[in-house]
Specification:
By secondary structure, this protein is an alpha/beta fold. Helices cover 32% and strands 26% of the residues.
């Protein structure tokens, strides 16, 4: 298996273009099931999760063409209604076909995702919403079977117990073609949810309030295909911000939407990182050691769980002590033991990690079992003394477009080592 080898110590300098957002692209690609015809999606990142999604859509009668950054999807009516286990186990976001399939055909069979590296991650809220809209849900042989006896979902008020991101997205797609009005209360407010709302409206849907905690969707009789450019990836941007600061660098991020990153930039500024808006992007610079800050993850607009691991590396480079609390996922500290092997001093007590600043980190062979933990190990490798080998690179390939090329262009000493090399 490939690994990424980094010789740490080089401050990152230069410009980096932020790619399209993975977590916006995934629900948007799945929403193409809602309308027959040719959809064109631009600024789509070149990632393994995108390939997995197009493979899944392929099994559902959607013909996909992938060229650099453009995905063309030709949707036609088929009898296929199933997201099989072999694809769902590769990518939990496969569950995002559930809402569109039930909306379009009144039926779907989706393999239950099961637990994953960062937590149990049930989908009960997705199912509760579909039930309220008239679907009958049964669980059989590891699959969720949703069927609407009347053929078409009907609008309903759904109060979510948790503002689940993909749950909100599934229910928005389901409601787009339902009969009548659906109100989603305690909806997720993430920018990716707002982006899906924009795309659905471009398709002819009537979605109001996406990006707030109450979303109203008036169902329509039919939708049409769209041409849409995907928004920038705020988590990729945040990761480069932390990498720039951690290495004592000076990086201009191009194409980033700073409004999507307010919780992160507030913490970074408090820590002593300079973040300036410029005509062509956002400049991030600073020099360790930084001030220790405490962080608690929360649904948007709170501090994103997807940036927790990367920020922890920056907190290793302080002269103080920082407490990082993870409230979204129950098992999202897998990077801690690997960072400690690199010389960090971090203790985990339940949902909180206490990070004691250290003068430096040292290179080691490390690996992680999820995407953002892997990203944090890359950032740690960039600042560490000596060589770091980050194993299980396939996690990074799920979510960071051309990461080693982008970092090398910023001056990092980084290369992908092929397993047979
Ligand atoms: N939850 C339930 N029941 C549900 C749904 C969620 O209990 O029906 C719980 C989850 O177990 C979790 C919490 O609610 O503890 C929040 O989960 P959520 O459903 O919001 O997460 P998700 O939709 O599965 C998306 C992103 C994740 C990101 C989270 C939180 C996509 C494709 N994935 O996941 O991204 O961490 O929201 O912001 O949008 C990543 O990109 O690395 C990643 C994991």
């Amino acid at each position: 298996m490939d690994s990424i080898r980094i010789v740490g110590g080089a401050p990152l300098r230069g410009n980096v273009k932020i790619s399209g957002a993975k977590n916006a692209a995934l629900p948007i690609l799945c929403s193409s099931l809602l309308a027959n015809g040719e959809h064109v999606f631009r600024n789509v990142p070149d990632l393994r999760d995108i390939v997995t999604t197009t493979a899944l859509l392929g099994q559902l009668g959607v013909e996909a063409k992938l060229t650099p950054s453009v995905v063309t999807l030709h949707t036609r009516t088929t009898d296929a209604r199933e997201a099989p286990y072999d694809l769902v186990k590769q990518m939990r976001a496969s569950v995002l076909v559930l809402g569109p399939l039930v909306a379009r055909y009144g039926e779907a069979r989706v393999s239950l995702p099961g637990g994953c590296a960062i937590g149990a991650r049930p989908i009960d809220q997705h199912l509760k919403g579909l039930e309220a809209m008239g679907a009958t849900i049964t669980l059989e042989h590891g699959y969720v079977h949703a069927k609407v006896a009347a053929g078409r979902l009907r609008g309903a008020e759904v109060v979510l117990d948790i503002p689940t991101v993909t749950g909100t997205e599934n229910l928005m797609c389901a409601a787009a073609l339902a009969k009548g009005r659906t109100t989603l209360v305690n909806a997720a407010r993430e920018p990716e949810v707002e982006e899906l709302g924009r795309v659905l409206n471009k398709m002819g849907a009537d979605v109001q309030g996406a990006g707030t905690d109450v979303i109203t969707i008036d169902g329509v009789e039919g939708l049409h295909p769209v041409d849409h450019a995907i928004m920038a990836d705020r988590i990729e941007a945040g990761t480069y911000m932390v990498a720039a600061a951690a290495t004592g660098g000076d990086v201009l991020l191009e194409g980033v939407t700073l409004e999507h990153l307010e919780a992160l930039t507030a913490k970074l500024r408090r820590a002593g990182v300079a973040i300036e808006r410029e005509a062509s992007g956002v400049r991030v610079s600073g020099t360790p050691p930084y001030r220790a800050v405490d962080v608690t993850t929360a649904p948007h607009p709170g501090f994103p769980t997807d940036m927790q691991a990367q920020l922890m590396v920056l907190m290793c480079l302080t002269r103080g002590q920082s407490v990082i609390t993870e409230t979204i996922f129950e098992n999202r500290f897998m990077h801690v033991s690997e960072l400690n092997r690199m010389g960090a001093q971090i203790e985990v007590h339940g949902r909180s990690a206490t990070v004691h600043g250290v003068p430096s980190l040292e290179g080691a062979s490390v690996m992680a079992t999820d995407l953002r933990a892997s990203a944090s190990l890359v950032v740690a490798g960039l600042v560490a003394q000596g060589t770091t080998d980050v194993q299980r690179v396939y996690h990074l390939d799920r979510g960071y477009e051309h990461i080693e090329q982008k970092l090398a262009a910023l001056g990092a000493n980084i290369q992908r080592v092929k397993s047979n090399a």
